[in-house]
Amino acid sequence: MKTGVVTEKDNVHYGDSFAGKIIVLPCSRGSLGWSDMFRNSEYNGVGPSGYVFTTMDSKCGTAIFNTRRPCVADFPADCDPCVEIHDGDYIRLDGINGTVEILVPAEDK
């Protein structure tokens, strides 16, 4: 991944860059190449600045390990970050304490 741009044709974010942004996902998808894509984007200087996963799995863990970026994962059943956090929200991610805070909702910008 040399550009940090989403290339999956059916993805709602097709053509958008994730470079320097916090990615919010329910979990990983696809093969082990999924975590390699994030590792390669990090090596090329176009990786995300952090990750929020509703549920951690081995591919998510591999991506976090390889990129050395902060992550918060494994939310309780009554808290889905993919529902609570919206595109364009400014958030604070604290991987040490396991917290995510919405600082400025997208609709307030």
Which strand-content bin applies to the residues? Answer: 15-25%
The CATH architecture designation is: 3-Layer(bba) Sandwich
Number of DSSP helical runs: 3
Strand order of the largest sheet: 1-2-3
The helix fraction, in percent, is 10-25%
Keywords: Lyase
InterPro entries: PMDh-S-like_dom
Domain Phosphomevalonate dehydratase small subunit-like: 2-62
Protein name: Phosphomevalonate dehydratase small subunit-like domain-containing protein
In short:
With 109 residues, the protein is an alpha/beta fold.
Question: What is the fold's blueprint, element by element?
Answer:
Blueprint: E1 22-25, H1 33-43, E2 50-53, H2 58-67, E3 71-73, H3 81-84, E4 90-94, E5 99-104
Parallel strand pairs: 1-2, 2-3
Antiparallel strand pairs: 4-5
Helix pairs in contact: 1-2
Descriptive notes:
It comes from Intestinimonas butyriciproducens. One of its GO terms (molecular function) is lyase activity. The strands form two sheets. A three-stranded parallel sheet has the order 1-2-3, with no helix packed on it. A two-stranded antiparallel sheet has the order 4-5. Helix 1 runs parallel beside helix 2 (58-67). It has three helices and five strands, in the order βαβαβαββ. The mean pLDDT is 92. The chain has a single domain (22-108), classed as Glucose Oxidase, domain 1 (3-Layer(bba) Sandwich), CATH 3.50.30.10. 23% of the residues lie in helices and 20% in strands. By secondary structure, it is α/β, with parallel strands linked by helices.
